Amino acid sequence: MTGAPLLELDKLSTHYVSAQGSRVVRAVDEVTLSIHAGETLGIVGESGSGKSTLALTILRVLPPAARIVSGRMMFEGEDLVTKSDEEMRHVRGKRIAMILQDPMASLNPLFTIGDQVSEPIRVHEGESRAKAWTRARELLKAVRIPSPETRLTQYPHEMSGGMRQRIVGAIGIACEPRLLIADEPTTSLDLTIQAQYLKLLGDLQKAHGLALIFITHNLGIVAKMCDQLAVMYAGRVVESGPVSQIFNRPAHPYTRALLNSIPVMGDPDKRLTAIDGQPPDMSTMPPGCSFAPRCTSVMPRCREAEPPPFVVGEGRISRCWLAEPATGGAELRVAGGVA
Length: 339
Fold this sequence. Notes:
With 339 residues, this protein is α/β, with parallel strands linked by helices. The chain has 11 helices and 14 strands. The chain folds into 2 domains: 7-232, 3-Layer(aba) Sandwich (Rossmann fold); 235-338, no CATH class. It has an 8-stranded mixed β-sheet, sandwiched between helices. The chain has a 4-stranded antiparallel β-sheet with strand order 2-1-4-5, covered by helices on one side. A two-stranded antiparallel sheet has the order 13-14. Helix 5 (129-142) crosses helix 7 (161-172). The protein is globular, with a radius of gyration of 21 Å. The model is unreliable at 327-334 (pLDDT under 50).
C-alpha cells in the first residue's frame, strides 16, 4: 500500500491505574500499527490481550481509571493524543466511528431507532430533524433493514439481534467516516446472518472507501475480510503483517498456536489443539517474553530479556528471539531502528 497511512500508531501505551496508584495494568503497551485508506486491518488475540482497550484509546473514550501514558496517534496528519476533549467530539462519529461488541449495550432502549440513527447527522452535520430522519431511512435501507419507514419509529427491543447489529452499523456510517472500528461485531450472530453481515461490511467499505479495523477472535473472518493482521498478546503486538504471509508462514509461536487451534472440518481423528496455561496478569508481568511461560519453543534467553520487534519481511514484524537474524557481526534489524 503506497502513500501515507490514514492512521499511524507509534509506541502507543494505555495503562489502567488503581485509585491509590499501587496497581498498574499495561493494557496497551507500546503498540505500533498503521492502516491506509480502503484497507482492512484485523486485530486478534485472546480475551484480555488489549484489543478493545486499543480501540477505545483510538477514539479517546477510555474509562476514568485508564490513561494514555505515551505514544502518538497520527490520524490524517493530526495527533489525536494531543487533541482536547472538545476537538475529539468533532472527530468521533464524524471521521472515526465504532461498532461496539454488544448492540444492546450501545443502543439506548428509551429512544427510537430513528432518533439514534439520525443523531450523528444532526450533531455533526447540523441537519434538521426531518432531513436527518430522511437520511436515517436511507441508511437503514443501505444496511438492508426491511420496512425502514416502520423500523424508524420502533425501539431496540423490538428488533432481532441481527437487525440491531445492522442498526449500529448504520449509525457508524451515518456521517461517512474515514475509519470504522468494528469490535467483535459478529459475536451474537448465527452463521447465516454473520455471513450476510460480513458481506454488508465489505460492500459498505467499497461504497464509501473507508478504512476498517476488525477486532475478532475468529481467524476465519480475518482470512476472508482483512488485508493486514496484528496479533496481540498481553497488551503488545507480537506479530503483524500481510494476512496471507502470516497465515502461510507465522513467525511468532503465539501466532502459530492460534492458527493450530483452528478446528479442521471433515477430519474426525484430528483433536482440537489448545494453548496450555493462561495469559499473564498484566499488573505483574514476568521478566522476559510475556509468552515464555506458555511457549513450546522457549529458550533460557526468553525468560531473561524481552525481545524487540524484529523485521521478518517487508511490512512484517515479530517480537520473538527466534526471529532474530543471524548477523555474523552485522547490526540487528529491528522495527523502527537498529538494536
